[in-house]
Structures are given as C-alpha cells and as structure tokens.
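Pilot study result, target chain (200 residues):
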Amino acid sequence: MTMKLPAALQQLIDSFQILPGVGPKSAQRMALYLLEKDRLGAERLSHSLQQAMTKLDHCQSCRNYAEADLCPICSDSQRSTDSLCVVESPSDVLALEQGVDFKGQYFVLYGHLSPIDGIGPAELGLADLKSKVEKQAIKEVIVATNPSVEGEATAQFIMDMLPESIVVSRIAHGIPMGGELDLVDGGTLNHALSGRRVMS
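Predicted structure:
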C-alpha cells in the first residue's frame, strides 16, 4: 500500500529526483534530512539555486557559465591566449582546472556531434569556435572531447574546419575509451594533457 504524503513533501522528493543518479529512496532521504536536521541549510540551498538560475548565463567568449559578459577565466589577463582547450561540458573545465596546470583558454561545446540526436556543428557553436581561434590568434587548439566514438568524430571535425596554420592536438592517453573527463582523477588528466598528440 502506497503511503500518501503531504503534497509539499512529495513535491520536494520529486524535485530531488531530477538530479542524475538520485532515485526515489535517495530523494526521500535527502528531503527528510533537510526537514529534520538542517532547515537553515535547506534555505541556503533554495537561495543558491534561485541565484544561480537568475544570475548565470553563458560567457560570450567560451560559452562556459558566467555572471557577466565574460567568465572569470576569459577575463583573467594572466591566462595565455596561445592555447585553447575544447571540452564537451562545464564539468570538464572544472576537472581540468582542478587537476591540471593549464593556463590557456577554453571553449565549451555542450555536447558532441550526434546527427541521430539532431546535434550538428551549429548546436555546438563550432562557427563561434572558429571565430574565437582566428580573432585571438590562437596557436594551438587542444581537443579534449571525451574518448568516445562521437567525441572522436567531433575532434576530427574540429581539426578539419580549422586553418592548417593552427596546431590541433588531441589528449591521447591516460583516459579510458568511453570514459568521462569529469570522472577521471587529476593525475590521469595531467598525464593525458601533457601527452597530447598533434592530429593529422
């Protein structure tokens, strides 16, 4: 027999289930924990979510999340403009920033080429990527898309669309085939980035 919960509690439990990997039981535990043990924490969480939803947009240069026209990385004058690392998601930027000593720029695709899902060059902002590379006179583009079939196809497309004068390299080893960058430890990421290869 299914127990009928107060509507507000059921709504809270349902809301937690939108998170990846959170099922009904985990959502129920989180909801009850906040209600029973940490109502102030719940209020902070609610406020932070509201702030993030209203204040965050996309950086006009790299497409990562930002509160202004440019994100903190793109607006940092200490960052090198010689190299640009292309990643699939903002979580990949976080993984690289936390695990690797990379001081260049980024470009976030928000996915990979997948014609069956209707994701082509326009959806990934590849025209913006090419424009950024040309305007900033970037010397090397490091393609750090995930090592999946789609990630490799995206990497090849990027290499083919850029001028031959641009060095295009690919993180080559240390990341398992089919792996996700944001799930790889910093040492492995550092090894993969330092061992990148030029695409041909």
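One observation from the pilot: The chain has a mean pLDDT of 89. A full batch analysis is planned for the follow-on phase.
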